[in-house]
Every structure is written in structure tokens, then in C-alpha cells.
Amino acid sequence: VQLVESGGGLVQPGGSLRLSCAASGFTFSSYAMNWYRQAPGKERELVARIDSTGGSTNYADSVKGRFTISRDNAKNTVYLQMNSLKAEDTAVYHCSAGRYSRYWGQGTQVTVSS
User: Fold this and answer.
1) Model pLDDT, residue 104
2) What is the DSSP letter of 13?
3) Which H, E and C letters describe 74-93, residue by residue?
4) Angle at 22 between CA 20 and CA 26, to 5 degrees
5) pLDDT in tens, 19-33
6) What Å distances lie between residue 21 and 14, 25, 42, 98, CA to CA?
7) Taking Cα atoms as reference points, which of 52, 80, 87, 46 lies closest to residue 66?
8) How far is it, in rounded angstroms, from Cα 18 to Cα 44?
9) Which of 90, 84, 80, 88 is nearest to 110 (CA)?
10) What pLDDT digit, counting tens, does each position of 37-80 carry?
11) Residue 28: closest CA among 62, 75, 63, 64
12) What is the spatial distance between Cα 114 and Cα 103, in angstroms, rounded to a whole number?
């Protein structure tokens, strides 16, 4: 099983990034997928979740209206579009598979700074 995140980097406040998480080794289309983040000194936070079909999504209050989670089951990939980024969005972003996060990726760093 592998989950490989990409798309992180340094962006100015107000900017955008699109994270991707490529999955392999399990039946991707059967799993809900999640994006979590963890900033230094802070607890891990569930940012967004999407069900197995892509028909239902949930977001943390801190990102509602700015972030969008989506998935392409044909490509075994889940995305996180992040707009209007703020300094407080700086964190390592991880994707995980399943309602109880059975599988995890290694994470990608997102830094929002001028």
C-alpha cells in the first residue's frame, strides 16, 4: 500500500496550491479519503474528507469556503485545492485512506509566507 502526496511548497498569503495524493495497493474506490495537517507544536487536524464516490465531503471550519477536496477514482488520486491561503495554513499535509485512516502518506510541506 502506498499513498504519495505531492504539490506542496512555499506560497504567499492569498495564493493557491493544489495537493495530490496518488494511491496504490488497495481498492481506492472503496475507501473514503482524508486530508489531515499538522503544524509544529499543534495537534493533527482533519482538514477535509470525501466519501468513496466523491458524492459527500466535509471540511474543518477553518478551511470551509477556501479548500476543496475531490477525487478521481479512475486515477486513484485524491486532491486538495487550497485557495486564499493564510499563514495559519502552514503545516505538513497528509492524506489517509478510510474512515479510520487505515493507511497514511508521508506528507507534503505547505508553507504560507511573504
Assistant:
1) 97
2) T
3) CCCEEEEEECCCCHHHCEEE
4) 145
5) 999 999 999 999 999
6) 23, 13, 23, 14
7) 80
8) 20
9) 90
10) 999 999 999 999 999 999 999 999 999 999 999 999 999 999 99
11) 75
12) 34
